[in-house]
Amino acid sequence: MTEDREKDVVDKLLKAGVGLFAMTEEKVRKFVDDLVEKGEISGTRSKSLADEIAKKFEKGRQEWTGKFSQEMKKILSSLDLPSRSEVELIKQDLREIKRELKRLRKEDDSKD
């Protein structure tokens, strides 16, 4: 799996997780709104309750994202894939090799 493809997979998984939190938060806000409509809580209490729940969801999302990121790093590390910096070093070496090859070809052409 290429590094770009891996990054895409990780991004999609993170977005899916965040989407689940957002969907759940939306459902909780709807539930709170329903409680207001039924007169079980006041409109002013609903805002504070919804805000409190939103804060808890945000905290949970941040914790989940951090844990997920750590696990993904472990998984990618176990695959023994080169890091971005290692790939950049390889690219740099390759450019130097190409320059040297080009120089040697010019040298060889000038001898003919």
Structural write-up:
The chain is mainly alpha-helical and 112 residues long. The protein folds into two domains: 78 residues; 31 residues. It is 88% helix and 0% strand. Helix 1 packs antiparallel against helix 2. The protein is rod-shaped. The two termini are 45 Å apart.
Which helices and strands occur, and which strands form pairs?
Blueprint: H1 3-37, H2 43-78, H3 84-111
Helix pairs in contact: 1-2
Descriptive tags:
mainly alpha; about 110 residues; single chain; 2 domains; 3 helices
What structural class do helix, strand and pairing data support? mainly alpha
The tally of strands reads 0
Number of domains: 2
Helical stretch tally: 3
Q: Helix fraction? A: over 70%
H-E string:
HHH
Instruction: Compute the CA-based radius of gyration.
Output: 27 Å
Could you say which overall geometry the principal axes of the C-alpha atoms support?
rod-shaped
Q: Describe the largest sheet.
A: none
- What is the beta-strand fraction? under 5%
Taking pLDDT < 50 over at least 5 consecutive residues as the criterion, the unreliable ranges are none
**Could you report the average pLDDT, rounded to the nearest whole number?**
77
* Amino- and carboxy-terminal Cα gap: 45 Å
Summarize the structure.
88% of the residues lie in helices and 0% in strands. The protein is mainly α and 112 residues long.
